[in-house]
Amino acid sequence: MHTKEKPYVCILCSKAFSWRINLHRHYRSHANKKSFVCETCGEEFPLKNNLVEHYRTHSSNDRPYSCKTCGVGFSQKSALTVHSRIHSHDRSFVCDACGKAFVERSQLKIHYRTHTNEKPFVCNICSKAFTSKSALVTHYHIHVSEKKFTCSVCSKVFFQKSRLVEHYQTHSNEKPFACDVCDKSFSRKGNLNRHYFSHATEKSFKCDICESTFFRKDCLKEHIRTHKDKKLHACVVCGRTFLKSTNLFTHYRIHTNEKPFACDICNQAFAQKSTLDRHYFTHTDKKPFPCNTCSKSFSKNSDLVRHYRMHTKEKPFVCDKCNKAFSRKYLLDRHYRVQNYYKPYVCCVCSETFSQVDHLHKHHCKKMKNEEQNGIISCTASV
Fold first, then answer.
1. pLDDT exceeding 70 applies to what percent of the chain?
2. Residue 28 to residue 146: CA distance in whole angstroms
3. Which one of 67, 188, 243, 260 has the fewest beta carbons within 10 angstroms of its own beta carbon?
4. What pLDDT, in 10s, does the model give residues 252-285?
5. Where does the record place the C2H2-type domain (predicted)?
6. Contact (CB, 8 A) for 158 and 152
């Protein structure tokens, strides 16, 4: 009781307290109070860093980097670079779960937490957690505000009107947020966003430029805009284009069957290092994705999603010609090729075509083995 430790700190003025209840009482002193005053213009601010940021508006020397489009000044060149993306519509950081694009990597990082439900910022008064620090700061005003919104059905109290409106939907069973992939509906948008992540492992729409995949067509269209006016690298074998030369180099391994990344445990080889990294999980006991039906655990979320279909017998991928259904998209793709006699995989040595990439790989191995026996150098070595 007599310890000098004060773990409860006010985020508004940095004053510390030994007891949470004392911090709670202290927050009330900040209600409708602005403590930090600008000596130049007299404007008041609730946070000290708000005042520091405001001071820069009075000093042109502190903002030497100006935007040529709107004239806003910045103290750092990097801040101007980020700001310029707003005018050029350059949103380079794209969420691979829902396709939404962002100007800054930090914005994408915060957004991604809506899919993973990660909430690292916790209120030290009521223990409620948030995905971003700004959301936590906004939440703190609830504890210092006197205004409350009460549900007329169950008398539950809320400090924000939007929360009350959202709460009313639990009484009416209204679910206005519908998934456009499987038509499942939700009463809260956050639940819909988390649900979308369950579809992220079966992505139907692939970008031909950078190979990013999306489970919604509109997300792919939005993503393709990020490639406008960018230099593309084309494969001389099949004509496919890539944003980066490194991606093209990796792609060539499909034609050459080269697999330079080998597992030092089981010697299985892979064309990409990222695939090898994922493979290593199969050798560890770490399986963080448990099935809540049979308690079986998996090292990857995608494996868990596929496993669930064993319980639900779900087959979401349906052939639009014969209505035959499949549990995984690659099985549907394979079915289409057989049905249409489509053979997209071409041998760069003899031009023979195949409907499946593994058939092409077997063909390459057989051909290279014959050439080695006959002392012939394969043309694939020069690709």
1. 58
2. 9
3. 260
4. 787 888 888 888 888 888 888 877 877 777 777 7
5. 8-35, 36-63, 65-92, 93-120, 121-148, 149-176, 177-204, 205-232, 233-260, 261-288, 289-316, 317-344, 345-373
6. no
Give the dihedral of Cα atoms 77, 81, 84, 85; nearest 10 deg: -160
215, 203 contact by CB (below 8 A): yes
For residue 78, the Cα-to-chain-centroid distance in whole angstroms is 24
pTM: 0.26
Instruction: Give the total residue count for the chain.
Output: 383
Cα angle: 157, vertex 163, 168; to 5 degrees: 80
Tokens of 125: 């008064």
Instruction: Using DSSP, state whether 64 is helix, strand or coil.
Output: coil
Express each pLDDT in 75-107 by its tens digit. Answer: 677 677 666 655 555 556 777 666 677 767 777
Amino acid at 185: S
Residue 28's alpha-carbon distances to 16, 23, 34, 250, 332, in angstroms, are 15, 9, 13, 60, 61
pLDDT, tens digit, 9 for 90 and up, residues 170-213: 777 777 777 766 667 777 766 676 665 555 444 456 777 666 76
Nearest to 19 by CA among 123, 124, 134: 124
Of 112, 109, 131, 128, nearest to 120 by C-alpha is 131
CB 170 within 8 A of CB 180: no
**What's the one-letter identity of residue 370?**
N
